[in-house]
Structure formats: structure tokens, C-alpha cells
Design goal:
Blueprint lengths: L2 E5 L1 E5 L16 E4 L3 E9 L4 H4 L3 E6 L5 E7 L5 E6 L11 H11 L5 E16 L5 E14 L10 E10 L4 H13 L3 E2 L5 H5 L1 H5 L19 H18 L1 H5 L5 H18 L6 H36 L7 H26 L3 H15 L11 H24 L4 H28 L1 H34 L4 H12 L5 H16 L1
Antiparallel strand pairs: 1-7, 2-10, 2-11, 3-8, 4-5, 4-8, 5-6, 6-7, 8-9, 9-10
Helix pairs in contact: 6-8, 6-11, 6-13, 8-9, 8-13, 9-10, 9-11, 12-13, 12-16, 13-14, 14-15, 14-16
Length: 504
């Protein structure tokens, strides 16, 4: 199983002339030199270096304290997450499947092959506190790098010396203090944040300049609708992209979380469409909707299986609750597995990677119209419009007689409530309490109508399952089906009360 390590480090060209001392460094009490290490690493990437261009490195290293497979991915705060697997986890001709899955969103479907071989002589020095705990590690690396595979035919081995400082159990103030010493000793920050980037600089420079590894951070302040919208888009695009590997590896709740970010993105694009050039977001919205539906099949099977399985456990003993639950668990486990496989297959196709590219472009440069530069008044108008939309859908839906038409109308009102909620969330940095209040009230409408919709879907689903079940269990499923709307009036009463508060 993979382990993760958060890495915060800085690199410098050259080696210090003066040995590092603990005096004056925050929290440091002593230094300790460690034995010299010999490291040997082979790096993997696509022929056009898609990983490297996004700040990602994948290698198999021997020697040192952490020999094995390492995948390093960048975070917005400047740190990197290192995922490790033992050396024996890989295939004979390439990286292990788990790391391939974690790198897939960065490789964009490209094949990963060996692109460089680096040999390093490492001289480590540890900075320790009074209790002997390691605060940071400074290493002097003498590197010999050999590019591999296709690329610049003039490529040749490179040799250089560099210094790296990595935090262990210390804050950034220690990193800053060490950097001050190194700069005073004649070192300079490295032009390349990674050894691989330095080794393949010539090949990298010859490629198209698409270098974003993740959406940039949002604006520091939200002084306009455009600022708030930009920050919201960047946050949820980054979160969605970060969940790609979790979905591929079928980690708990990952499908649900990715689907939520897709919903938020679609809702805020729709709620703020007057602030965006529509022609620039229509394709993205359409592809997000498609991906959301694909993920939705897996999520719906997961949620419905949990909900109906729990309900089956509460059946009377003469209705065979254990057998009924086993049947439901098996049905929905199969449905989820099939839907999850379909989702991962969709995420392997060029269409999905084109969507990820488009989302990164959207985050980097949102297509804002001039009116997006306006402030509170415009945000209030946008929220009021969404609030009115919820009320105009909810009231007539609640007035309908029970039946299919009312169920559809209530479902439409629920979708309007979600859009209004996410629109309010995106405006909260600008409108504060007013936006939080609308988000809270629309969430209450959404939750009440969501519970009602669960009952509607549960009825239909149980009818389908009962048609294929043994007679004894079919009867139990019929009883469960009759219970799906036992709290319907309470749910709709909650929705009506929340709608009244929202309309005031």
C-alpha cells in the first residue's frame, strides 16, 4: 500500500563553502552530519514530458533511506505530495498500477516510459532541536544525469552540484533563515525546481508552453463579482482534478466528492452566466453535465444501496430481513461496480482529458464580461434572481396533487435550490452574512426535497429489484417499497417552511 509524505523544500545551485551551524536558526540546537549516500534513479514520463510540464515527477530509486517508487505532485502552497511504494511494486517494464492511476490526470492518457537516469552522491546534514528531533535536512548533491529515449539528438550527460533544504518538523521561518545563510554564502535559488527539469531542460524548452500543473490560486480579496467567481471556479476545479486518482482507485466517497464539485461548477456557471461570455463556457458546461451523469450512476447505486440496505435491516423477523438485505447489498454492489468501471473507462478517453484541459484554461483565464468588475450590488441582484427562481418553482410544485407531475416539479425545485445555494456560497466573500443566510435556507430546501426524491427513486428501484427476486423476498421488498414515502408530508412541510423564509 502506498504511503504519502508532504514535502516542503527549496533547491539552490552550488554548494555552501561554510558548514551549516545551528546558531541563530529558529528552534535549532545542533547539527549532525549523516553518512554519504549513493542514489540511482530512473524517471518516467510521456515522450512530450506531460508530467514534468505540470510539475510532477515519477521515479524508481535505489539507495538511500527511502528507496522505491516515488510520485511527486505539486500543491498550490508550494509544497509537494510524495506518494511512495516499495521497489518491488512495479512491473518489469514500468511503474506500478497505483502510481499510473495517480499520474493519469497529469499524463493525459500518454504512455509513461523512462526519460532520464540520474546518479547522485548525497551528503546530508540534519538540523536538530534540543530533544534531538530532526527539524530539517540539508543535502549537498553531486548529480550526473543521462537523458533517455526520444528527444534532442544532441542530448548528453550533465553534471552539476546543488543544495536542497527540506523541512521535517519545523515551520517555514526555519526554511527562510537557512536560505538567508545560503544566499549570503554565494548560492542562488535553482532555476529548475526539480533535478529532472534541469536534466531535460533542452527537451523541455523545445515543447509547447503548456506548463500549468493545477489551477492558480484565487484572488486574495473579492472586491467584485468577477473576483469571487474566479476564486470559486479555481477552488473547485483544483478540487475536482485532485480527486481524479481517488476515483480511479475507488477510494471511499471519491465519486460523490468529485460529483459534488461538478455540480458546484455547473451551478455557479449557470447562476452567473450574465457575467461570463456564454460561447466560452457552453462546451465546458455540456461536458461537465455528461461527466456528472456518468459518475451519478455509480453514486446513486452507492447511496441507494446503503439506504435500502439499512431499511431492510429494520424489517420484522418474519419478513426475512437478513436475506432481504443480502440481496439488496449484492444488487447494488454489482450496480456500483459496473457504473464505477464505466466511469473510469470514460476517464481514460481523450474526451475527458480535453475537459480537464478546458477546465484548466477556464481557471487560468475566466471569460469574464465587463459587468463582472462590479461589486456588491451586482452580486445581490444575481442572488435575488436565484432566490426568486426557487420560490417560483417550489410554491406551485407543492400545490400539485400527489403523483408523477408533482414529483417532477419538486425535483426541478430542488435543482433550483442547489443552484441558488452554490451561487450564494460563491458570493459569500463579498456579501458575508447575507450570502450565508441564503445558502443556509436554500440548503434546507434542497435537503428536504432531496429526502423526498430519495423516496421516489427508492419506490421505482425496489419495484425493479422485486421483479427479479424470489417470492418470499419479493414480498419483503414490496413492504419496503410501501415505506419509502412514510415521512413525505414532513419532508414537504420542511421544504415549504424553508421556502417561506427564503421568499421573505
Amino acid at each position: 500500500m502506498a504511503t504519502e509524505h508532504q514535502e516542503t523544500e527549496r533547491s539552490y545551485d552550488g554548494a555552501p563553502r561554510t558548514p551549516l551551524a545551528a546558531d541563530g536558526l529558529p528552534g535549532a540546537a545542533s547539527v549532525r552530519r549523516e553518512p554519504v549516500m549513493r542514489l540511482d534513479a530512473v524517471y518516467f514520463d510521456t515522450p512530450d514530458l506531460r508530467l514534468l510540464r505540470r510539475g510532477v515527477t515519477l521515479r524508481r530509486r535505489t539507495g538511500g533511506r527511502d528507496a522505491g517508487w516515488h510520485l511527486k505532485t505539486p500543491a498550490l502552497d508550494g509544497s509537494r505530495t510524495e506518494t511512495r511504494l516499495p521497489a518491488g511494486a512495479g512491473e518489469r517494464d514500468g511503474p506500478p498500477e497505483e502510481l499510473l492511476a495517480r499520474a493519469a490526470v497529469h499524463a493525459r492518457g500518454g504512455r509513461l516510459d523512462a526519460v532520464a537516469h540520474l546518479r547522485t552522491r548525497r551528503e546530508p546534514t540534519l538540523l536538530l532541536d534540543e530533544d534531538g528531533r530532526t527539524l530539517a535536512e540539508l543535502v549537498r548533491d553531486t548529480v550526473s544525469a543521462e537523458p533517455l529515449g526520444a528527444g534532442d539528438p544532441a542530448a548528453h550527460p550533465l553534471d552539476w552540484t546543488e543544495t536542497e533544504v527540506e523541512l521535517a518538523e519545523a515551520g517555514p521561518e526555519l526554511l527562510d533563515a537557512v536560505e538567508e545563510r545560503l544566499l549570503a554564502d554565494g548560492l542562488r535559488p535553482s532555476d529548475s525546481p526539480t533535478k529532472l527539469g534541469r536534466a531535460l531542460k533542452g527537451r523541455l524548452d523545445a515543447l509547447p508552453a503548456r506548463t500549468r500543473s493545477a489551477p492558480p490560486p484565487g484572488p486574495d480579496t473579492c472586491d467584485s463579482v468577477g473576483d469571487c467567481l474566479t476564486a470559486y471556479l479555481r477552488s473547485h476545479i483544483a478540487a475536482m482534478e485532485s480527486l481524479d486518482a481517488a476515483v480511479r482507485l475507488d477510494e471511499p466517497d471519491s465519486v460523490h466528492r468529485m460529483r459534488v464539485h461538478i455540480r458546484r461548477l455547473r451551478s455557479v456557471l449557470a447562476a452567473h452566466r450574465r457575467f461570463l461570455r456564454r460561447d466560452a463556457v457552453e462546451d465546458v458546461d455540456r461536458e461537465l453535465r455528461r461527466l456528472g451523469r456518468i459518475l451519478g450512476r455509480a453514486r446513486d447505486a452507492e447511496v441507494m444501496g446503503e439506504r435500502l440496505g439499512a431499511a431492510a435491516s429494520d424489517l420484522p423477523g418474519d419478513l426475512r430481513p437478513r436475506a432481504t438485505r443480502r440481496l439488496l447489498d449484492a444488487v447494488f454492489r454489482d450496480r456500483y461496480a459496473s457504473a464505477w468501471r464505466a466511469a473510469v473507462e470514460a476517464m481514460e478517453r481523450p474526451r475527458y482529458f480535453a475537459l480537464v484541459d478546458a477546465l484548466e484554461d477556464l481557471a487560468a483565464d475566466p471569460p469574464l464580461r465587463g459587468r463582472a468588475r462590479r461589486g456588491r450590488k451586482q452580486a445581490q441582484k444575481a442572488m435575488a434572481k436565484q432566490r426568486k427562481r426557487v420560490v417560483e418553482r417550489l410554491r406551485p410544485a407543492l400545490a400539485l396533487s400527489p403523483g408523477h407531475d408533482r414529483d417532477l416539479a419538486l425535483h426541478r425545485a430542488r435543482k433550483a435550490a442547489k443552484r441558488a445555494r452554490y451561487a450564494a456560497e460563491s458570493s459569500e466573500p463579498l456579501l458575508g452574512k447575507h450570502a450565508r443566510r441564503q445558502a443556509k435556507r436554500t440548503k434546507r430546501v434542497q435537503q428536504a426535497l432531496g429526502a423526498h426524491q430519495d423516496g421516489v427513486v427508492g419506490e421505482t428501484t425496489l419495484h425493479e429489484v422485486a421483479a427479479q427476486a424470489p417470492p418470499g423476498i419479493a414480498f419483503a421488498l414490496g413492504v419496503l417499497r410501501s415505506r419509502q414515502r412514510t415521512d413525505e408530508e414532513g419532508q414537504l412541510s420542511d421544504a415549504a417552511e424553508a421556502g417561506r423564509k427564503l421568499g421573505r
